[in-house]
Amino acid sequence: MGRLSITTRNAIKLLPENVSENMKVYLEQKQYRKAYNFFIDYLSSLDKLDIISIVNNISLAFNKKPLSTKSIFHVIRVNGTSLSYEGNFTVLGRVLDQFSMEQLDNEHFIVATMYDNYTYKVSYYIVPRYAPQTKRACIIICNNGTCNETMIYVNKSVTPGVRKVYIRIDLVRRYRDNRVYIINLKNMSIVGKLVGLANNERIYSARLLNNIFYLVTFRTIDPLYAIDVSNPEEPKIIGFLKIPGFSECLHPLGSDLLLGVGIEGDYLKISLLNISDPQQIKEISLIKIRFSWSPLLYDHHATTIGPLYKYIHTN
Known about the structure:
CATH topology of the largest domain: Methylamine Dehydrogenase, Chain H
Number of domains: 2
Number of strands: 17
CATH architecture of the largest domain: 7 Propeller
Order of helices and strands: HHHHEEEEEEEEEEEEEEEEE
Helix content: 10-25%
CATH class of the largest domain: Mainly Beta
Strand content: over 45%
Shape: elongated
Number of helices: 4
CATH superfamily of the largest domain: YVTN repeat-like/Quinoprotein amine dehydrogenase
Structural class: mainly beta
Radius of gyration: 32 Å
């Protein structure tokens, strides 16, 4: 049982000893199909109330320990032509892309994550198997004084036969939010964080410009957040802008303008944002191209910014 997960061990303990011991053997031998079929045969032999009790107990066992996403970062220092391992740190959630994580200063690192919390949904369903109800009839046919007896079989109706009970385990997300962590690289500890940001939405783009971390989330409308990270121990939201659609790519044009490229309904949307005052972000111009798409939505290399920001080339 050493190689089996804690969740599986807890679930198996709920079964009768003879059933659990057989399943342990199959699982240790990696005969997962045999273990599953053995369990299904056992469930199929029970009445409905016992099945419900076992399913409920398995659900409780599977959900004793919350299941969530996390990211582990390894820090490696480059010393001329040699490498040294500095350590690692862990944050909850997963990272979207390289713009969601940046070196803030000589001592601090910032990362934005999408945090998902999951639960197991355990259910069962019964598949009845029907067997024909057979009637026998004896027919006697006489011809020229000679009689012959014939037995025929008639399937009059169907009646329930052997049934099978199947169990299903689904991983269901029950909660999502977005988070910003600031890590001290000297001791690999989290010194500042924002949690519960834009619940049930996801991050679509991020960009760190000086001491302002810009973050786009989306569900039904596009909020662009401006987060002040000048004090690593107390990051705080100082401004936001809500506009239709969402931006998959954020690109700075100088110190006062931010280019956003994304989707709004059936349109490819290119927005120009004034960020000279992060507390009062404004969309000052936009272009929408219907029934269009661009690789820039997932690859920031798919654009070229011309001299003095006069032209933006994308395909």
